[in-house]
Give the backbone structure.
Amino acid sequence: MRPQNEAILVIDVQNDFCPGGALAVAGGDDIVAPINAMTPEFAVRVFTQDWHPRDHSSFASQHDEAVPYSMIEMPYGPQVMWPDHCIIGSTGAEFHEGLDTRAADMILRKGFRREVDSYSAFFENDHATPTGLEGYLRTRGVEAVTLVGLATDYCVNYSAVDAAKLGFKVTVIESLCRAIDLEGSLDAGKDGMMSAGVRLA
């Protein structure tokens, strides 16, 4: 067992981020079995889900002439235009069928507000609206978090950096993550995580 004050955050291991999904990450399903094997080592286990309304503002389909993976400026800053994905109630939004979610103490759904995206498990992309995860972890006595899941350069990265800024000791297990790597986003994400004090294991 890991120390009682350490939590695992399993980030967005959902069908749409796995091969065949709307926003597939190469090898996204390769990490499922090892995550299942590791999860019971932790006293606190949190799983996150991207959870978007059908007309979410981060979808390229909601903007005239926007194409997937282009960038636009939103009121809260730059935003990637994504393919429609992880729509509430859809098969794509479900956890990968091989992921053992029975171990979860908490399932956190994010990105459900139409007007703002939410990469981080701690804050929406305005960097101000909290998801409630910090408070939950504090009440459980958590001081350290280990992150695994999808995708390294987006939701894992943003979650890890926010956790570090909030004062948690943060580890990202790179072998149990996979990246989108959009125009150098993986290298940029890793640099940002290390600068924030995140340990890449």
Summary: The chain has a mean pLDDT of 97. Helices lie at 32-38, 133-139, 152-165, 185-195. DSSP finds four helices and eight strands in the chain.
